[in-house]
Amino acid sequence: MAEDTDDSEKTEDPTQKRLDDAFEKGDIPKSQEVSSWFSLVGTALVISFLAPTMVSSVSTILKGFFAHADTIAVDPGALVFLLEITGPEILGVVALPLLTLMALAVVGNVVQHKPLWTAERLKPKLNKISPLSGMKRLFSKDSLANFLKGLVKIIAVAAVVFLVLWPERDRLDTVVFRETGLVLEEVRELAIMVIGAILALMTVVAGADLVWQRKKWFEKQKMTQQEVKEEYKQSEGDPKIKAKIRELRLQRSRNRMMASVPDATVVITNPTHYAVALSYEEGMGAPQCVALGVDDLALRIREVAKESDVPIVENPPLARALYASIELNDYVPEEHYAAVAKVIGYVMQLRKKKSWRS
């Protein structure tokens, strides 16, 4: 669905979850020019430092065969024997250059993003084999941009090679008349010059392409406002549902609190805005708050208290002070001991009088 969304509607920056999902699917910002740059660096290192030793070693290995080429049997058995002798030696000579090129090819990918293992790219998808999808990709803006980029790069590289070799045209004319060893050295020097110039050009190209690819990838990951809302619902839950759950929890908490009011010792009121129900029994360190509320909840607490014959004492300063300094099921703070003790004492006297009358 996201792929069918008009890009003009994608105005929101991607969330971290969106970026993580893209990474897990193997969709990462990658510049092929950076990988080519590292491969070119590997080629320059091989030619500059390893080529002379490699050529000398291979020449030594093959010199004897070339000197006696007319005596070497060419039947299958002899050729297999020849490969068994020369193969390991030649492989040992070219192993280091090959490993160097392979290592830099890996580095060219790793520097752009941390190693990522995913099978998402291996999953078969119908749009990959669909002729219509293939035609759309072939004639897409990205394909046109890549074609133009490749064409410009070829022209630029050709121009650099021309500018490097043109001043050396006199040397090239006399190369064929020199000894083999000198020819190889001449070719090596010219190759280093050409590769160095191309490497300088490709450094600029790779840097610009890396910035462009990251910007294009980030733009592709942008989201519409609706996608942001849907993702929030999936990760955090629907706000309406969460609000309903909070409301239900609050209602259950209030119901449990109201169920404790009939067992309260006294309810201290404002008299109309605040109500704090306290419970106290002999042996307790301090009275405990079993219910409290303001306005409608305070009215409900007073009504339940009346129905349950719980004493209601009007003391506005104390009611406001207790509501501001106490939570449900907390004990009365020390600073209110004296005031609450007077109220509790008053309630105890009322209970005694009632018991005497009865």
TrEMBL record:
It is found in: Cell membrane. Residues 11-24 have a biased composition (Basic and acidic residues). SUPFAM superfamilies: EscU C-terminal domain-like. This is Flagellar biosynthetic protein FlhB. Residues 1-10 have a biased composition (Acidic residues). Residues 1-24 are annotated as: Disordered. Required for formation of the rod structure in the basal body of the flagellar apparatus. Together with FliI and FliH, may constitute the export apparatus of flagellin. It comes from the Bacteria. Belongs to the type III secretion exporter family. InterPro entries: FlhB, T3SS_substrate_exporter, T3SS_substrate_exporter_C. NCBIfam families: flhB. Keywords: Bacterial flagellum biogenesis, Bacterial flagellum protein export, Cell membrane, Cell projection, Cilium, Flagellum, Membrane, Protein transport, Transmembrane, Transmembrane helix, Transport. It is a multi-pass membrane protein. One of its GO terms (biological process) is protein secretion. Pfam families: Bac_export_2. Gene3D superfamilies: 6.10.250.2080, secretion proteins EscU (3.40.1690.10). The chain crosses the membrane at residues 34-55, 90-111, 144-166, 190-212. GO terms for cellular component: plasma membrane. The keyword Cell membrane applies. Its main location: membrane.
